[in-house]
Amino acid sequence: MDATTNILNWFEIPVKDIKRAQKFYETIFSIKMTDMGVMMGMQMVNFPSKMGNGKLSGALVKSKFHKPSATTGCLNYLNANPSIQKVIGKIEKAGGTLIMQKSLISKEVGYMAMFIDTEGNRMALHAQK
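RE: above sequence
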């Protein structure tokens, strides 16, 4: 692998109710997600992406292998640029719970926040402002 290749290329967010989760993420990020139907026993709804050029993407996934968790597992940071506060302001109205307010990581790195989504997943946000 060369230095221009991302080590991460795909993520999956476990869900209990895929339509509810889709509505939540479409609302807080002002995006349109794509229902991919069922593949290999997994119901999937994809986040929009620009694959290639170092970009990555992921999906909401409902299957017997995917279990939401507010306390364990990987912590995914979702891109909240250009304004983390704009996304934070939509979380509770959309049914999520903010568990960490906007916090400065450093001037160079930017800001972060954490929330629990409608499915019970602990998630994080990152943005420069």
